[in-house]
Please model this.
Amino acid sequence: MLEKLGHPDATTTALDAMVSADPHNPVVLNNACYARAVLGRHLDVALRDCDEALRMTPQDPNALDSRCLVRFRTGDFASAIGDCDAALKARADLSSSLYVRGLAKIRLGYTDIGHADIAAAIALDPKIADAYAGYGVKT
Model:
C-alpha cells in the first residue's frame, strides 16, 4: 500500500522492520520476499529472505513460488523454472507458479510449452495475467 501511495522507501523500511521483529518466522520471511519480488526492488534481499524461509521449511510451496518470482525478475529463468517446478510438485494448483514458469520458458525460447503453462494458469485463475501485468511482469 505504501508503494502505491508513492512511498517506496517507507515500504522498504516496513519490510525490514517486519523481518527484524520476527527473523525466525518463515511466513514473515516469505511475505517480505514476495512483497519485494512484486515490487521488483531489493531483489538480493528478497532472495536472502526466501532462502532463509526455505532453510526452515524446505518444501514450502509458497516460499518456492516467491523465490521463483524473484529469480524470474533477476533474469535467472532456469532457476525460476526449477523453483516453480518444486512449488507445483507440492501444490499442483498454484496458478502463480504456472504463470511465472510459463513466462520463464518463453524467455528461454520454449514458446509453445510456455504458453501452455500460461493457459493452464489462466484456467485456474482468469485474472492471473492482469495481476502480474500490474507488477510489470508479462510476456
User: Anything to note?
Assistant: The mean pLDDT is 92.
